Amino acid sequence: MSLSGKQIAEHNSRESCWVIVHGKAYDVTEFLPEHPGGSKIILKYAGKDATEEFEPIHPPDTLDKYLDKSKHLGPVDMGTVAKVEKAESPEEKERQARIARMPILEQCYNLMDFESVAKRVMKQTAWAYYSSGADDEITMRENHTAFHKIWFRPRVLIDVEKIDFSTTMLGTKVDMPFYVTATALGKLGHPEGEVVLTRAAKKHNVVQMIPTLASCSFDEIMDAAEGDQVQWLQLYVNKDREITKKIVQHAEKRGCKGLFITVDAPQLGRREKDMRTKFNDVGSNVQSGSQTDTSQGAARAISSFIDPGLSWKDIPWFRSITKMPIILKGVQRVEDVIRAVEVGVQGVVLSNHGGRQLDFARSGIEVLAEVMPVLRERGWDNRLEVFIDGGVRRATDIIKALCLGAKGVGIGRPFLYAMSAYGQPGVERAMQLLKDEMEMNMRLIGCSSIDQLNPSLVDTRALSMHAANVPTDNLGQFVYDPLVVPKEKSML
Amino acid sequence: MSLSGKQIAEHNSRESCWVIVHGKAYDVTEFLPEHPGGSKIILKYAGKDATEEFEPIHPPDTLDKYLDKSKHLGPVDMGTVAKVEKAESPEEKERQARIARMPILEQCYNLMDFESVAKRVMKQTAWAYYSSGADDEITMRENHTAFHKIWFRPRVLIDVEKIDFSTTMLGTKVDMPFYVTATALGKLGHPEGEVVLTRAAKKHNVVQMIPTLASCSFDEIMDAAEGDQVQWLQLYVNKDREITKKIVQHAEKRGCKGLFITVDAPQLGRREKDMRTKFNDVGSNVQSGSQTDTSQGAARAISSFIDPGLSWKDIPWFRSITKMPIILKGVQRVEDVIRAVEVGVQGVVLSNHGGRQLDFARSGIEVLAEVMPVLRERGWDNRLEVFIDGGVRRATDIIKALCLGAKGVGIGRPFLYAMSAYGQPGVERAMQLLKDEMEMNMRLIGCSSIDQLNPSLVDTRALSMHAANVPTDNLGQFVYDPLVVPKEKSML
Amino acid sequence: MSLSGKQIAEHNSRESCWVIVHGKAYDVTEFLPEHPGGSKIILKYAGKDATEEFEPIHPPDTLDKYLDKSKHLGPVDMGTVAKVEKAESPEEKERQARIARMPILEQCYNLMDFESVAKRVMKQTAWAYYSSGADDEITMRENHTAFHKIWFRPRVLIDVEKIDFSTTMLGTKVDMPFYVTATALGKLGHPEGEVVLTRAAKKHNVVQMIPTLASCSFDEIMDAAEGDQVQWLQLYVNKDREITKKIVQHAEKRGCKGLFITVDAPQLGRREKDMRTKFNDVGSNVQSGSQTDTSQGAARAISSFIDPGLSWKDIPWFRSITKMPIILKGVQRVEDVIRAVEVGVQGVVLSNHGGRQLDFARSGIEVLAEVMPVLRERGWDNRLEVFIDGGVRRATDIIKALCLGAKGVGIGRPFLYAMSAYGQPGVERAMQLLKDEMEMNMRLIGCSSIDQLNPSLVDTRALSMHAANVPTDNLGQFVYDPLVVPKEKSML
Amino acid sequence: MSLSGKQIAEHNSRESCWVIVHGKAYDVTEFLPEHPGGSKIILKYAGKDATEEFEPIHPPDTLDKYLDKSKHLGPVDMGTVAKVEKAESPEEKERQARIARMPILEQCYNLMDFESVAKRVMKQTAWAYYSSGADDEITMRENHTAFHKIWFRPRVLIDVEKIDFSTTMLGTKVDMPFYVTATALGKLGHPEGEVVLTRAAKKHNVVQMIPTLASCSFDEIMDAAEGDQVQWLQLYVNKDREITKKIVQHAEKRGCKGLFITVDAPQLGRREKDMRTKFNDVGSNVQSGSQTDTSQGAARAISSFIDPGLSWKDIPWFRSITKMPIILKGVQRVEDVIRAVEVGVQGVVLSNHGGRQLDFARSGIEVLAEVMPVLRERGWDNRLEVFIDGGVRRATDIIKALCLGAKGVGIGRPFLYAMSAYGQPGVERAMQLLKDEMEMNMRLIGCSSIDQLNPSLVDTRALSMHAANVPTDNLGQFVYDPLVVPKEKSML
């Protein structure tokens, strides 16, 4: 027999707190203090239906995994649950109007276009979570800008009729030298979440890296793969190593072909744009100021399990629990790449976590330019595969990374934006545009295959220039009278 | 006997497609799949008069050359052809109003002024085709900016009463050290097309390079030359070498004095600004999204014949079919200049195709500064003539290039803009302004003739600095309270 | 018996000038020519109540100290004093409206936020005094910008579960490696003045440096300290060394633990923003232009006693009058740090006085990077403690300074702004935010304690780049047609 | 007997052209073709009173000197001359309104302030003439910007109680290390012209350099000097050396103490802002386009006599005709400074003519940093005095130049702007402000006299960085969502 809305509504306090998720009731009273996102956000829905809030930030198996079966109260007769009348806010109305006017997909000609559209059509909180970076977002922007400091030295008069930019990563043959890197909370952008990316990756034969903090469950994402489609696992290491072990070995059993251990996030970042949106949240009473620490944005809410004690001495243990190649994701200096070789892992991702962790961390492409000459000097450049991610928006960015010695590049946000704005067709078009650009630019740089890319094709002299914007002389700028083009005749 | 409009109008489908061009009817049914610009654009005019669309992007001899005579259906009685009523769009009305207010020619004081006027008075599609560059247009802008990294070290107290800035290029005596470089589709800017440039070049005694993709036919442009006026041929190499041979030998016979083989365009560029204008095109139904690949802007439409397989091994063949000096246009690194000397060509143009091909290709002037010291060290600086193009807007730009060792510079877009805005008088004034600037600046740098220009007159230390705009600290900028000049008294 | 308002009002001229301060009357006729801020400002209040103007820029014991007791005329019956009707200005009304709309404290997520709020809610004159810098304020902005030229080289896979960022400065154990540096005129920002900072410093266990030019008296600030709270004394050296001696020995007796002698201000700066506000001052008649020299902003008004003759030969004398450690505040080049070691002081603050003195002085962080390698080379890095101040806004700024060898950093304006906007809770939150950032960023850089910070963790190659904004090509910028993202559909 | 207006009015054509200047009539029919500014501008006033146009750009003795006495027709009865009713243009009305609202002089706190005011209150043509530079005005702006690349390394704890910044230039003792450099057409800015500067220079005991192209006559300017006031002569060398000789020897006889021969202007610059104002000129019919060459702005109109043939071989001749020290003004590279020493002149001014001649000429301060080390290495630094001009706006600019080895700096435009806005009191205040800044900054850099200034006090590492603004990634900038400060509460 189902529970009624009225019954649930009676348990609406810290003393007895029931919530409805996907038509079922749960008693979360005892769980309140343990909730990584704080008790307040749950109490907001005490006695009510929390599905809409719950959905995008918890994989569907969350309650099964973390809430004792005794607290599963069974199905609710949803017809008896009071509907919350949500007046559509003016902001939401404007957003709906923007959605109605959205450009058609064919009007997007490059990866930036998707970001531009997504910014206009996504919910503010979702946009804030995806687009935010650490502190002043200086590293986040540097990631893309760094590519602009590298210029080409193209070859001419090379036969480039046939272009082949397929390559292999960790033994997998892929059509293009990039992979879909792991990003959290896919359902913030699209109701189906990460499986959208899985299907698009299949279409273009590139690898998808599955995030620990996915909105879909790991198995859903694996199930969405077809045929011999290859996936990797991104791992945040749990303080409880048994949980980690279970996750890793399950992934291996399901067929994952690489284990990417995140090493740049002992604590998830302070992203102020994300934090600020909390104050716009309907019904938020955080403004009282009494409990600010529990409201630090989505990133903090979902990451309290991550072990800040993870260290080099844990690596052998990982090697003991899996046969998957192990790649350290988030290495940021040559000394650590050398150490990675020494501890015997199969690869590193030079990455600063998309500019979401430490502001003023250098870009992956810059670290790459520091790392590869040292590896080559030692003859170690074949002892591990080096990937980078962060700021990749153009095929020229990819080509630059490969010229400098990367095996492939990870792309994250652009595909999230394409998915958020246009769903799977959006992601597919984003990949197709990269393909078009790749073909064109491989030709223009004078290379018909990936193995021809080499450092002599790029000029990186500016790459280490970190000069920030320098102080401006406001007085001088104000009084300066700039040249203007001729005025129109009627102005005379 | 002429065909009637009604007869033509019956053949308005993919199954039977007739079109009128310049008062004659053609059966293009079988040609549809072969059309480099795609069949869709032709079908739009099936059964109708296509002259206005056809004109600017096809030389007049196109149909004779590429459509079998059996498909030439003969003259049409144009009085019987239904006139298409084209309502003038609001954008077009605004443009006409801007044309009415155009500054008079004498108000243009430099080459930028023409660009400014042209931008306001040209049709959007024409402006997009001329002004667009590859990807983010970073190389396009770098081309001009690069000159700004070079500063002068002028000499004083040199007798500069008489200034002579004539020089020779490939044996031809010219009045100024620049030439009109090849640019496609002149009729987009002016109904008469490239011959306007021919006449202006004659007036100022400079060389014109004739483009393969001209709107006028090659012979029309040759015919427009007067007396001993010198012209060169720019060549896109056709996959069918017989066609190429015919073009080259015809040009030589007609008196062309130089063969400039384009080597930086195995495939014509993705120029997004150009691509975007397609969606504004009257009657375009590309928005359905079904056939986007056939609508990639004017550049793609006209260039499918170009051979991406062209390579160094083809050069001896060119030397075997012509006695014209051969110059490789689009060389971009010193290694390839050395190879050019070794294969025995007479010159190179250091160029990135006006920033229209590979974004992040370096500017011609920067490559020049890399090339010349190497050539001089080998004693090879007299074994070929080195030209540059891209971004030249001021006489100081020309002087900088010559100081560094260029024999001359090519100028393209500025003359197109002058022509589009003011016709032949515009081009002539543009050249005259360069002449005025040359005279002034030769004096101010302390040189009375071209042979006195040398590297000691320039400071190029900044030329290799590629630092892109660096990340800005938005918070800091927002809160900073800038100094202001004193408020006016009434404000107190 | 009290004096009446009428009696006072009769003495309203240069010949006989009485003023009321805090309910007591004073005869300042003879003092007029000696007033450091000029006689004009006193005459404005001749015969009237000057308390509101007097309060923020004079410590309460000023009149006792500097005006002979015979001029203390005794209490005034304030009921008999004519109230000055001050019409609220439109600017003040707008300011009050802004105060009413102020964000709540919890909406401030970083130190910049306080500055942003303070700018909107502070009185114009107070804001101008706090926020102004020398000349074009180029050094002031450089102070913060300089940190942006330093990038991190973080370590990964270090156990950072427990983070300890406590350290010691001049023997005092502190919770965080910063101190509240000395800033003048605290009551401009908050009615209680510097004691607000004292209390907040106690809460977070950091040191406060007491300014010579405080609004509160020295003893008030000492009295506000609790328990073993540590304070230092910032000293402007008086031309009359006896006064200086008295101040120093009094401070030592009261328990001050460090003597910071300001050496970068032989004369206080010209701060034009501060100077300009004088013209907005209610009742100011400086506009007559007759006496401009006496109206050079608050800085000049309060600093005429400072001795521009202070020199290295004075240092032994200071060592003879106190046992407190002596630190030179405002050292700006390595040669002077070496000399500081040689004369035997205990520390230096590399500082340019918050950009308020010499424009184009380099930032403390840049001088630090110049100083430490030289000290290390001589093995002198432990012979004195090196501090820096200026531009610190983020925990990453602090960490960068410590990586380069600083013992701690001083923070001034940000706490003033937090205090001005939100009082003591504001200052406490500002410190808490730094604490949150410190914890996060220590983890992300891979260090669990202060002593692990070292130069290999930062990339300072850009630090000495002083390139100013370079000339812009206005014509080129004007005519350039930038790429745009796709227009919305309704725009077609 | 006086001529009547009617009589004059009859001679209003190219065939017979009379004009009135200062109440006297002149027959200029034969002079028309010789007028350096073209005949058109005279014909505009044929038969009329030309005084207002004539006045600012011709010294009063012009007609006596250049027009044969036989053409002097004698006094005119001005009451009979038809008054020209000039309707006040809307622009002029706005300008008058801006003048009425002008800030009072005491509100100007630095040299930029005068420029800001002048821009608002000067006539457009006068502003254009004073403020314009060559081509894109890049050198003009670089002149000031270059100082921003130099930072200080100040000394502390130096006794700076007494500051003495007097020095000597060419043997003359001056109160401050700058001089008023020569600038043309003073009456465009102020009805009295250059004598205003003479009187202000006297007041502050600095040297004035008298321009060849003054609005006042040379003797008027000499006569305005008082006591032992020192003046120098700036010389444009006439094609007719006899005229030059007469000018030089007359100047020496009148007491000039230095001969500054301009060597950077064989032809006066193309200043487009100046040229453009011609089209706004009341009554200008240049728009017909028929005679554009005669309308190239004020600079061209007044300079046709200058000899572009002037060269090093002329220097001995100058030494033979005068005992005044000879200084070459406008030297721009170290090679030419060496040659200057070798030909035995007494000094050089490193200058690019205020950015009015060759665009991309380097700044004087940069050339200084190139020159002095070479001179010192040869032990030649005392064999001539080195001055610079261009871009000096702050005392810190002056101090930087002196640290690097300049004997003094020339200041031009700032005094013109001060004069144009506020007359002599403006110029005096401008000089006083520099004095205030000098005193302050000498103290802050730790120097009590000019001879203590030396290269160790400045950091010039950035001085040779010429990187221009680099291409911007427009797409990236457009889509980037910047951090914002917290929204105000009412916005929630």
Q: Can you walk through the features of this model?
A:
4 copies of one chain form a homotetramer. Chain A is an alpha/beta fold and 492 residues long. Chain A has 19 helices and 15 strands. An 8-stranded parallel sheet of chain A has the order 7-14-13-12-11-10-9-8. In chain A, α10 (218-224) links the parallel β8 (208-210) and β9. Chain A is globular and about 75 Å long. At the A-B interface, α8, β4, α18 and α19 of A face α6, α12, β11 and α19 of B.
- Looking at the overall shape, the CATH architecture of the largest domain in chain A is Alpha-Beta Barrel
CATH class of the largest domain in chain A: Alpha Beta
Largest sheet of chain A: 8 strands, parallel
Could you say which overall geometry of chain A the principal axes of the C-alpha atoms support? globular
Assess the beta-strand content of chain A as a share of residues. Answer: 5-15%
Number of helices of chain A: 19
Oligomer: homotetramer
CATH homologous superfamily annotation of the largest domain in chain A: Aldolase class I
Largest interface: A-B, 57 and 67 residues
Q: Record the strand order, biggest sheet of chain A.
A: 7-14-13-12-11-10-9-8
Number of domains of chain A: 2
